[in-house]
């Protein structure tokens, strides 16, 4: 059985009908060639692609980490420090205009009961 995948075997890929079979040596050599070529193609493709893809992923991770640490986080901190008055005004607006509305809606809806019944 091949290790290509659990559902696909060598016989599924290179199949002969049961009524007509080639020589046993041909079947044996074709099976061996299939397994070896599959293994070496995988190794060659992974050799050619794994190193460059991991290198690019590592570079991208390093760039994004550097940007986050040295640009984004200080910018956010600077913004929050300089915009403290906006936080104060926004908190006052919420306390004066919006909080009473939601408190009254909460009191109106507090007597609603939901019962789930199974039939």
UniProtKB/TrEMBL annotation:
Residue spans crossing the bilayer: 47-72, 84-102
Keyword Cell membrane: yes
Sample GO molecular function, one term: molecular adaptor activity
GO CC, one annotated term: focal adhesion
Gene Ontology biological process terms from the UniProt entry: caveola assembly; cell differentiation; regulation of cytosolic calcium ion concentration
Alphabetized UniProt keyword annotations: Cell membrane, Golgi apparatus, Membrane, Transmembrane, Transmembrane helix
Role description: May act as a scaffolding protein within caveolar membranes. Interacts directly with G-protein alpha subunits and can functionally regulate their activity.
Family listed: Belongs to the caveolin family.
Protein name: Caveolin
Provenance organism: Oncorhynchus tshawytscha
Lineage: Eukaryota, Metazoa, Chordata, Craniata, Vertebrata
């Amino acid at each position: 059985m091949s290790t290509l995948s659990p559902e696909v075997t060598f016989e599924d890929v290179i199949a002969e009908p049961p009524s007509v079979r080639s020589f046993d040596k041909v079947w044996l050599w074709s099976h061996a060639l299939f397994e070896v070529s599959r293994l070496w193609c995988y190794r060659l493709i992974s050799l050619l692609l794994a190193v460059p893809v991991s290198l690019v992923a590592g570079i991208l991770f390093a760039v994004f980490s550097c940007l986050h640490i040295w640009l984004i986080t200080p910018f956010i901190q600077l913004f929050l420090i300089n915009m403290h008055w906006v936080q104060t005004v926004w908190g006052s607006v919420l306390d004066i205009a919006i909080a009473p509305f939601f408190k009254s809606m909460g009191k109106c809806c507090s007597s609603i009961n939901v019962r789930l019944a199974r039939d």
